[in-house]
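hi! just following up on the protien thing from before. the input was this:
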Amino acid sequence: MEQLALLGKIPDAELARRYGRTVMSVKIRRNRLGIPSPLAFRWTPEEEKMLGTATDGEIARSTGRTVTAVRKRRKRLGIARVSARHVWLASEDALLGKLPDADVARRMRCAMTAVKARRQTLRIHKADPLRPLWTKAEDKLLGRFTDKNLARRLGRPVQSVLHRRKVLGVAPFTRPHHH
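and the predicted 3d structure came back as:
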C-alpha cells in the first residue's frame, strides 16, 4: 500500500491531507510501526537562525522548503516577518492608473496587492478600459462647450466631463451675452 510506503518519508500532515485521514491517525500508525518522523523535515539550528533575516519566500528557496512551512515555523518561534519593501521609482509610480494593476505587477515582478496598495496610497484611480484617460486635446475643450455638449462630442458621460473640468479648475462654459 502506497500510504505505508510514504510513512516517515513525507510529513504526517501531508500524508493525512493526501489520503483524507487525520494527522493524529497517521502519527499513531507511524509510531506503532516504529517509523521515525521524517528527519528531512526537522529544522536545523542553522535554518532557524535564518528566520526573520530575509523574506519567507527567500528562505523557502534557500532551504528547499515551502513558503507555508517557513511561515509556520517562524510564527511558532515568535519571529517577526521581513517584508520585501520596494522603494518605488517615479517611473514606476507613473504606470499606476495608466495600466491595469496586473500589468504593472508583471512588469515590476511584484505582487499585484503591492501595486494596488501603492496606487491607493497615492489616491490614483485604477486603469479602466471603459474610461480612457483624458488627452491634452480633450482637456483644451473643457469650458469651451457646455458639459453636456462636450460629453456628447467626446462620447463620455456628462459626470466625467464635469468632474474633469472641476479637477482642472476650468470654469463652466457661459454663452456670450449680446446687447
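The mean pLDDT is 85.
Residues 2-76 form one domain.
cheers
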